[in-house]
Amino acid sequence: MHFILERLCDDHKQMMKVLFHLGRQVRVYCASPSDICLDQMIDIIDFIQVYPETWHHPTEDIIYDKLLEKDTPIYSLILRTVQEHNRLEELTLVINDVFNRAAAGESIDRGLLIKTANDYIHQQISHIKVEQARIFPIADQCLDREDWQHIMGKVKSVNHSASEADTPMHDYRGIFQQIANQHPATM
Ligand SMILES: [Fe+2]
Ligand SMILES: [Fe+2]
User: Fold this and answer.
1) Over 90: is that where the pLDDT of 12 sits?
2) Per-residue pLDDT tens for 74-94?
3) What is the mean pLDDT of residues 24-34?
4) How far is the CA of 5 from the centre of ligand 2 (A)?
5) CA 187 to ligand 2 centroid distance, Å
6) Rounded to the nearest whole angstrom, what is the distance from the C-alpha of residue 121 to the centroid of ligand 2?
7) Residue ranges of domains in the chain, CATH in brackets
8) What's the CA-to-centroid distance between 8 and ligand 2, angstroms?
9) Rounded distance, CA 46 to CA 65, Å?
10) How far apart are the CA of 31 and the centre of ligand 2, in A?
11) Residue 48 confidence (pLDDT)
12) Of 103, 150, 175, which is closest to residue 4 (Cα–Cα)?
């Protein structure tokens, strides 16, 4: 497997851990709301908002663009997955807004909070599963050396913008690890 795909797979594993942690925090918060728990959830959502938009999704989009030029049985699935990146980014804004309003002291219905968080987690996980199970194996099979050289050229500019971001990518990888290893706020 090309090392860019391996890196994306590593991101998925970490993202699953972070989403699992978010789900656990939501359950703890709903059983017993606390500011610590809310702050932890907002940190996780902030992270999910910035990291994929800076490196992960743009890199996948470059690979999927190349894959769409190939004769594959999953053309429409790839198109849908590319569109989903925008939808997931919009959903992150929605959940970010709901949790920040709760943190600002606004009374938010707990049922709405749980539903928003669970829908969000579910959609993120489904997206990752489709990429892992259906798209990455086809990318691995169908893209040749020349395609990867083309992709690498384009990924360079993503790496460049990522290195100019407020928080560089290697810091994000550290933050990822911290969140994944965090203990849930106690009830
Ligand atoms: Fe994706
Ligand atoms: Fe992905």
Assistant:
1) yes
2) 999 999 999 999 999 899 888
3) 84
4) 10
5) 33
6) 14
7) 3-181 (1.20.120.520)
8) 6
9) 28
10) 31
11) 82
12) 150
What residues have a C-beta under 5 A from ligand 1, the ion? 60
- Phi, psi for residue 33 in degrees, rounded to 5: -60, 135
Which listed ligand is nearest to 16 at the C-alpha? 2
Separation of 57 CA from ligand 2 center, angstroms? 6
Closest to 22 measured CA to CA, from 161, 134, 168, 180: 180
pLDDT at 64 over 90: yes
147 Cα to the center of ligand 1, angstroms: 19
Residues in the chain: 187
Looking up tokens 């890199």 gives: 59
- If pLDDT is split at 50, 70 and 90, which confidence band does 66 have? very high
The Å distance, Cα 179 to ligand 1 centre, comes to 20
pLDDT digits (tens, 9 = 90+) for 128-167: 999 999 999 999 999 999 999 999 999 987 776 666 656 5
